[in-house]
Design goal:
Elements lengths: L5 H12 L12 E4 L9 H9 L12 H12 L5 E6 L1 H12 L4 E7 L20 E6 L7 H11 L3 E6 L14 H4 L14
Parallel strand pairs: 1-2, 2-3, 3-4, 4-5
């Protein structure tokens, strides 16, 4: 519950998400958004935190609108962000980017939940930032046959790869070129094909 006092509200958000603001805006450039039933202690979060110790990996709970409000309050005023979203976190990253494109450097989406009904409550706008999307060929939660056409209508600069895996991407996500995906250079070699 937010109380209306900015300092108190920020402390409540920090306590609830495990984030404590240090005043160093430059440190918060890459953000991982976990899935609906996951947390900052999930396998992807642990893997990414180990590879990228400065990556911000908050916990989210509640409805999509509550999660979006929490996300917006955490990164408002930040620029040049890279958002990595898994499943529901991929949906969150997409929605945030549509409203804040100037603040985002790129998106990396892991089986994004673009096919979830909650998405219909948000206005769809075209996204021009570079976006990398991975979906498992055996994904029954966010199947490629539903998500890829939606993504093609949203992302102008989409690089898509279907991998031999299921929704969790447990067999493949560790093998993605994370250094290349999260590198700030605009031009990168040997990344997934553009659609």
């Amino acid at each position: 519950m937010l109380l209306g006092n900015l300092a108190t509200d920020l402390l409540i958000i920090a306590y609830n998400t495990g984030i404590f603001y240090t005043g160093k805006q430059e440190a918060m450039k890459i953000l991982f958004l976990h899935g609906l039933e996951s947390s900052s202690r999930g396998s992807k979060a642990k893997f990414l935190k180990e590879k990228f110790p400065d990556m911000l990996i908050p916990d989210f709970s509640g409805s999509l609108s509550v999660r979006m409000a929490t996300l917006a309050s955490m990164i408002r005023g930040q620029a040049d962000l890279i958002l990595v979203g898994s499943s529901f976190g991929g949906l969150m990253a997409t929605i945030y980017e549509m409203a804040n494109e100037a603040d985002i450097n790129r998106l990396v989406l892991l089986a994004p939940a673009l096919n979830f009904p909650e998405f219909s409550n948000y206005p769809i706008t075209r996204i021009t930032v570079p976006t990398w999307m991975f979906i498992g060929s055996d994904d029954t939660v966010t199947p490629a046959k539903l998500v890829v056409p939606l993504a093609g209508n949203i992302f102008e600069n989409l690089h898509y790869e279907e991998v031999a895996d299921d929704h969790m991407l447990a067999c493949t996500f560790r093998h993605f070129d994370w250094q290349g995906l999260l590198n700030r250079q605009e031009e990168r070699q040997q990344l997934p094909r553009q659609v």
